[in-house]
Fold this sequence. Notes:
32% of the residues lie in helices and 24% in strands. Strands 1, 2, 3, 4, 5, 6, 8, 9 and 13 form a nine-stranded mixed beta sheet that branches. The protein has a four-stranded antiparallel beta sheet with strand order 10-11-7-12, covered by helices on one side. By secondary structure, the chain is of the alpha+beta class. The protein is built from eleven helices and 13 strands. Strand 3, helix 1 (85-96) and strand 4 form a beta-alpha-beta unit. Cytidine-5'-monophosphate is lined by residues 42-43, 45, 155-157, 172-173, 198-199, 202.
Amino acid sequence: MSAYDHEIVSSVTEPAAAAVTVRVPAKVNLQLAVGPPRADGYHSLVTVFHAVSLFDEVTVRTAERTSLTVTGEDAPAVPTGKTNLAWQAVTALASATGRKPRESAVRIEIRKRIPVAAGLAGGSADAAAALVACNELWRAGLSQRELAQVAAGLGSDVPFALVGGTAVGRGRGEELTPALVAGSYHWALAFANTGLSTAQVYATCDRIRAARARADGDAPKAPARLGQVGAAGAVTGRADAADAVRRAAATGRPGVAEPELSRELMTALRSGDPEKVGPLLTNDLQAAAISLLPELRRALAAGREYGALGAIVSGSGPTCAFLAKDAAHAGDLAVALTGAGVCRAVARASGPAPGAALAQPQPRARKL
Ligand code: C5P
């Protein structure tokens, strides 16, 4: 079964709605294993995406000309022109469904709660929401799988925002398979004062790895998952160093192994026990994010000190995600982190959250 084997679009035979609003979640990465750069400049990944209950809302309505407005969190930082990924999503869906430009003009309204350039895939979420919303507005009838194909052309994280839940991402993140997860997980999310560019974080990761490989004389004796930092702050993976060295050699880049899914993490997620999941959270981009924004080290240390079961940079950062024991503990963590003054703001969220979906039933004229 793939992550796309269900449909979220409604009947194409009903009359079209005047406006469609879609709610879409942020994500954190429970594992982010980054391989060497590919020929196209992207990095091969194995990641465990986990959607959390921090939502943007995107409304689309038919208009004379396409326009885009943004309100809410970080609104001034969001582009309102064609460079906005939600605008590109509308254009891509129009072209995939053969609509003429005049038929596909929409007014796009984005209500942001997901911070921008934060490692939470907020821009990707808005693009996914725009796809689902226009699919509904235009009664285009694309299946979830067809929408995912359009989504993959927009960005690596866009397909996941469509499906939500918890899923393993491969390729550059766009090839998804659902993950079996029991229970729910409660998080405190610490937002930083500035954003980080995803491209810059990946480039920094490459530089750190190259420098370490040079320092090691291009002969990795240590684990090939260089720079991977576990939730407890320790470098992980020593147990199978020999295997990692073999995989690294196979990539032609000493010191950088092809990424592999953490079986331990998948087992822990099936148990539904956050105490087991917390120490297994890992992110290969964490060292790069910290080198670009050293204050993240303080935020992570503060979360651990206040009893977080896992403390990790989310995706390319700079948001830090802290796994709590339960909802009440997430609240305590949020208060403590706010008091410690190690970040701009803290939000509580739980996962897994559903993917992009209609925010409310759309009122329609009914023929009797
Ligand atoms: O796919 P997306 O546009 O979100 O990626 C933003 C940037 O992040 C890319 O231009 C690339 O520099 C980097 N990236 C990468 N490998 C991935 C995903 C993203 O190098 N798997």
